[in-house]
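Exam revision sheet. Question 4 asks you to relate a sequence to its structure. Input first:
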Amino acid sequence: MNEKESYADISPTAAEEDKSGGSGEIADSGPDSEAKAHADNIFAGFRCEDMDGTMHSSDEFAGAKVTLINIWSTFCGPCVEEMPDLDKLSKDYSDKGLQVFGVCADLWRRGKKSEDKADEARTILEGCQVTYPVLFPDEQLQQKLDDNIFTYPTTYLIDENGEVLTVIQGSKSLEKFEELINSFGIIS
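Answer key, structure tokens:
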């Protein structure tokens, strides 16, 4: 059994241990939760380019039943390890209403975008053969990430109305992501 398979079952309120040593908690997604308030602030009204220069915005949430946004960094091994699973998830469920975005969270330092980090991110994405859009945050989104993300990877599930369904801290396997998505009755 590999490390990904050894995790506890995922449910919207379960907590589990992630490979990177963090808590792996799935944050409460109830209407009064602090995690939901933070998540709404992070992604409400965002507009930025992906690694290919295509512009994306929060308006795209309305185009899918659920949007999975995976926040990762170039220094995070577990982030890179789960990318093939996220890519498969994107391919297998896009016709059922799922869209997947990645967000590379470590491109900015001291208020400046690092082209070296952007090149490193592109190399990682090409090596993993990622086909889903990976956003390179603008300065505004980067500040929101810096203020609210403390574990890599962190993944958000957002519905078509832009409401956060849940926040997942730590890496997961394809099977665990599928279980989570199905637990919301979104994709069957």
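Marking note for examiners. The first helix runs from residue 34 to 43.
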